[in-house]
Amino acid sequence: MNDVREFSVPTAQLSCLIGNLFAELEPPCSEPDDPDALTLCGKAPSGREAMLFVYREHCLFVGDPEDLDAARNGRCPDRRCGRG
Q1: Which tens digit of pLDDT belongs to each residue from 22-81?
Q2: Segment 28-35 long-range contacts (CB within 8 Å, at least 24 positions apart)
Q3: DSSP at 30
Q4: Which helix (H) or strand (E) holds 69?
């Protein structure tokens, strides 16, 4: 089930979140162009499609809420950042 969730995190945490949210990235060619956002599209580790729109003050996630929750609340698989 796709859902839209808005959230904010510090930049350092966003970098880690993106690395854990996407297993593979794809070009956002078929997505609407938003000049105010960095658009990331691809597959989550679950294999489900996900999109992340990164704005200056917040982010919008489009995808299965379980994928976002796993990336935000799960353990860091590499454990190199000290947050996992």
Answers
A1: 999 998 877 677 889 999 999 999 999 999 999 999 999 999 999 999 998 876 655 566
A2: none
A3: T
A4: helix 65-73
| Residues contacting 32, CB < 8 A, separation 6+ | none
Q: How far apart are CA 43 and CA 20, in angstroms?
A: 11
* Residue in the structure block whose two tokens are 């809420």: 65
Q: Classify 4 as helix, strand or coil.
A: strand
- d(Cα 12, Cα 56) in Å, to the nearest integer? 14
- What the block records as the tokens of 78 is 């590499």
Determine the pLDDT at residue 11.
86
